[in-house]
Amino acid sequence: MKKDYQKLSIIAHRKARGKISVIGKLPVNNREDLSIAYTPGVAGPALAIAKNKALAYDLTATKNGVAIVSDGSAVLGLGNIGPEAALPIMEGKAVLFKRFANIDGFPIVLSTQNTDEIVAAVKAIAPTFGGINLEDISAPRCFEIEARLKKELSIPVMHDDQHGTAIVVLAGLINALKVVGKKKESIRVVINGSGAAGVAITKLLHHYGMRHIVVCDSQGIVSKKRGKLTPVKKEVIKITNRENISGSLYDALKDSDVFIGVSKGNLLKAIDIKTMAKKAIVFAMANPVPEIFPGEALNAGAAIVASGRSDFPNQINNVLVYPGIFKGAIESHTSKITEEMKIAAAKALAAVVKKPTATEIIPDIFNKKVVLAVSNAVKKLAT
Amino acid sequence: MKKDYQKLSIIAHRKARGKISVIGKLPVNNREDLSIAYTPGVAGPALAIAKNKALAYDLTATKNGVAIVSDGSAVLGLGNIGPEAALPIMEGKAVLFKRFANIDGFPIVLSTQNTDEIVAAVKAIAPTFGGINLEDISAPRCFEIEARLKKELSIPVMHDDQHGTAIVVLAGLINALKVVGKKKESIRVVINGSGAAGVAITKLLHHYGMRHIVVCDSQGIVSKKRGKLTPVKKEVIKITNRENISGSLYDALKDSDVFIGVSKGNLLKAIDIKTMAKKAIVFAMANPVPEIFPGEALNAGAAIVASGRSDFPNQINNVLVYPGIFKGAIESHTSKITEEMKIAAAKALAAVVKKPTATEIIPDIFNKKVVLAVSNAVKKLAT
């Protein structure tokens, strides 16, 4: 019998009253302690930072921490459940930031889903933190919000649903291509889903050198022939569908080498996988129900299958990426997380698996080398 | 030789890299743990809160926590040193919230000192928290910011520099009056300083029943005769200076029973104290240099002297108040911290000292009864 993790989770959350705790790192047992941790001594660090803002990284914890910011509009696969309901997920990310990268994560959920107001709020609180992890903000607003914040802030900003996902997908693909002996330049890639993750994956794979990418959305293949493309899809079309084909997802799949699903469950059947090229790679990442279950895809001839689930091999999970990305970015005081850093992070993450196999294209999150590999890759490119 | 606490504080902050740490309360040692603390289980608490927002208090830590919000415009006695430099003080408050009330405090410093932008930013992040502790925001903006947020938010908002100070002053006065055997209705009170603390003290003492209060600012006694009073001083004048006197601070002091200084150091000499009524009470709270040093005031005949310093008896310190106030407000899910709650908190704090004496009008912060007394007083009045 499958465990009811939602129920177990509610019990655990209720017992602990949430998942995080803000504790003090200096003792406060007597007046002497108070004089150092608080007044009058605290004027010392305050005045030092007033003279040189960069000292906030040496003398405070928050400036080495990450704000985990959501408006609750696209939470997990649950949709627009609002800010309060998003809090358990933001606290979860804070727990994982601490556990895997020793970074202090600060949940921030917002009472607004207006782009201008979100940008203004994040800009207002930005001096507090070393970085901003945008989380569970729906497309297409997430693209503009991230772009504006990246432009206007001098601390790293990353929408994890976009780039965390894209980086771990690329890492998995790098190793999967090794296993099946195919080259990035020649493979045909179908990406189903043109939301936050789909668009970011498309851009990163293209930047990495993949040249034959076709993106599908709920209406099928995204092509120039379709009228009324959104601004984001107009960008996507510039780097995809070079042959300008039209049709359905199933048309796109024919003879393709890679399927990447970031859409919804139960879209594909064995017969669809069979139309793909030999040694096909299937990343069926819809959660909790994948586009096709791993066993079915393998039975239909796929060489490598990955999913978002922890109960199958090859789990494509952002937590492999974001702790290390922010650790590297904050420790190097870089102001931007660049495309080059993302690709370097993906390569480093892939390289943690010494000998990739069909059932191990991506390392386990509890592998201690993961965070260091990713953070060091980011740091090397920091300026 | 006096210790250099600022230097010791810098050393301690540098060594620990700040003062707070956001730790996880649920274990993350294997995939099973991850399934409960994060996906897929976390959908359980998220969906429960989506159905009933109030469950955020049961299932998350942040919703039981307090945002400690500052724009860095009036930090300690250091002035407008900016948001980053204010961080050590905000982290210090987080440490004390945890130490004394087991409340999670989340520092938030702002990139703006514009009233509208501050109000908008705090409203935007409000769903995250159980309460908002405004901190070190300069007058007169602090009055409007607090008033607007109290009106527009359904969680408790308190500017600690105003009300934390006012409550602990009232608690000290309650006991001081017992010691000298005077009555609140008949005493003459001089308050020097009409900033955040001075105004809040004035209002609270008046609300408590003191009827002979005179407020002074840098130009002397605040009276109707003076033209061009600020909106805040126009409010102050409605409840003070009934005899409509004019003159200097020193004129006001003559025959007064209580002096409350929240202004600047070295304003008073022995000769000024000698003009006060018999059994005078002197609260010289300017920091770090008081309006008059306790020894000098006592030598000049004052019956009771309090200050803001930890190295003299009767330290008037906000930390006696704010942990308990927010603990009571959050645990009772009250939406407002009312004047009645503040007075009840002051009475409860005063009552912690069983037999007040000239050198013990206020309890020690390490007295474990303090936080419970204050929080229970607030809870009793919560609706």
Mean pLDDT across residues of chain A = 96
Oligomer designation: homodimer
Structural class of chain A: alpha/beta
Q: Residue ranges of chain A: pLDDT <50 for 5 or more in a row?
A: none
The proportion of strand residues of chain A reads: 5-15%
The N- and C-terminal alpha carbons of chain A lie at a distance of 52 Å
Classify the helix fraction of chain A into a percent range. 40-55%
Key words describing this protein structure:
alpha/beta, 16 helices, six-stranded mixed sheet, 12% strand, 383 residues, four-stranded parallel sheet, homodimer
Structural account:
The structure is a homodimer of 383-residue chains. By secondary structure, the first copy, chain A, is α/β, with parallel strands linked by helices. Chain A has 16 helices and eleven strands. Chain A has a six-stranded mixed beta sheet with strand order 8-7-6-9-10-11. A four-stranded parallel beta sheet of chain A has the order 3-2-4-5, sandwiched between helices. In chain A, helix 5 crosses helix 14 (322-331), helix 6 runs parallel beside helix 7 (141-152) and helix 8 (160-180) crosses helix 15 (339-351). The longest helix of chain A has 21 residues, at 160-180. The N and C termini of chain A lie far apart (52 Å). Chains A and B meet through helix 1, strand 1, helix 2, helix 3 and helix 4 of A and helix 1, strand 1, helix 2, helix 3 and helix 4 of B. Strand 1 (20-24) of chain A pairs antiparallel with strand 1 of chain B, so a sheet runs across the interface.
